[in-house]
Amino acid sequence: MPELALLGGTPVRTKPFPAWPIWDEKDVEAITRALKNGKWGIAPPEQSEVARFEKEYAAYHGAKHGICVHSGTTAIRIALQALGAGYGDEIIAPAYTFIGTVTPIIDVGAVPVFVDIDPRTYTIDPAAVEAAITPRTVGIVPVHFGGCPCDMDALLAIAKKHNLWIMEDAAQAWGAQWNGTGVGHIGAAGIFSFQSSKNVNAGEGGIVLTDDDDLSELIRSFSNCGRSSQGVWYGHYRIAGNYRMSQILAALLSVQFSRYPEQHRRRESNAQYLARKLAEIHGFTVLERRPQVTAHAQHLFIWRYDRDAFGGLPRAKFIEAMHKEGIPISPGYSIPLYKQPVFLEKRFDPKHAAQRVDFGSIQCSATEKACAEEALWLTQPILLGETSDMDDIVAAALKVRDNAHLLLER
Question: Does residue 1 have a pLDDT over 70?
Fold first, then answer.
């Protein structure tokens, strides 16, 4: 039996996985073109890198409108503003997501209502959503977590029943589809992120998609100092900030996005291969992919760890051993959002409506289990490797499983 690298043996893998970001001279040329154009901020439509990217990206997802801004978090904020979310409104969101999903809810004066995830998918649990609805509920912010679409059929039915809007957080779900429809415009609106870890990457940036003409006008106004497409340039029709994307960022995004379909295909292929292999190992459960998920963005590859099947080996020790074997897995989020200090200590306006919420009393069992003992993450650059790279992940996992008793004795 091969000795674990953690105990002095030879690691399964010593070569690195694919580096991120990926770039070449095309990216340099695009940035140079935008620099030489001299229109770094707002530009006429025929010269605008931003306008071109907005159209390309919206069309890829089958959406009517795309509005670029400078981050995914900003995209959520202005989408919520455009949807009319305000003081005292309740907005339902999952407890297992990045904090950028919910800080915009606080920003617009609304109250985040945290609900649990479905442990089979790690996306928001529709039953928990319906149970959380009150007379103050105005909307739902489902997260297509890791690139996997939520159960949009169930969520749309709930929203229709209770007259709620849905704003999709698709920050990790570029090109993902539910029943053949691109996410991000299945609800009233949806957002995507282009931050540096993301599958489509320009360092920073975000976009809002929608099929609603009036909502699109509002979102663009909130991103552009409150201007109106029907008004004069120095006419400002609502309180708003400047959240516009620069032309240089959009030029880089256009080139990065041109590579995406092939990268998406490779991630999907490798993820499905890896899922089949890991599912054969007792003690691992790969997250479920519903039949309606016709495309998965594969931003994260996630599976569930059962310590009992590894003789009681704690997840942290399994991860340490995998790292020594050359496999950079992660436990993901360590605490649910409602246990973040900002919520437990209510570090926001003392007059904010969320002050009435006892965040410390919230319990979402599937979320807490994922954070504390169960979730294992692989990040998206790993899925750009070869089949042999996926085999190394499986080989390392088997090696640690077969030697788990030795780690327990340490």
Answer: no
Exposed, middle or buried: residue 56 (CB in 10 Å: 0-12, 13-18, 19+)? middle
CB 52 within 8 A of CB 253: no
Start and end residues for every CATH 3.90.1150.10 domain found in the chain: 260-408
Instruction: List alpha helices for 41-199, DSSP H.
Output: 49-61, 72-82, 103-107, 126-132, 152-162
**Distance (Å, rounded) from C-alpha 106 to C-alpha 335?**
19
Cα–Cα distance list, 360 to 87, 99, 185, 256 (Å) = 22, 16, 34, 42
* Gap between the Cα atoms of 150 and 183, Å rounded: 9
Tell me if residue 377 falls in helix, strand or coil: strand
Record: fold of 25-258: Aspartate Aminotransferase; domain 2 (3.40.640)
Closest residue by Cα to residue 206 from 75, 363, 111: 75
CATH number of the domain located at residue range(s) 260-408 in this protein = 3.90.1150.10
Inter-residue long-range contacts of 273-278, CB under 8 Å, 24+ positions, other chains counted: 273/387, 273/390, 274/301, 274/383, 274/390, 274/393, 274/394, 275/301, 275/303, 277/390, 277/391, 277/394, 278/303, 278/393, 278/394, 278/397
How remote is the C-alpha of 383 from its chain's centroid?
16
**Pick from 257, 237, 215, 194: nearest CA to 68:** 194
Report pTM: 0.97
What are the pLDDT digits (tens) for 15-45? 999 999 999 999 999 999 999 998 898 888 8
CA distance 61 to 318: 39
By mean pLDDT, which of 37-46, 243-252, 328-337, 346-355 is the weakest? 37-46
Tell me: pLDDT of 228 over 80: yes
Residue 307 banded pLDDT, cuts 50, 70, 90: very high
Q: Given the structure tokens 């969320």, which residue do they identify?
A: 354
CA 195 to CA 379: how far, in whole Å?
14
CATH 3.40.640.10 positions along the chain are 25-258
**Contact (CB, 8 A) for 216 and 64:** yes
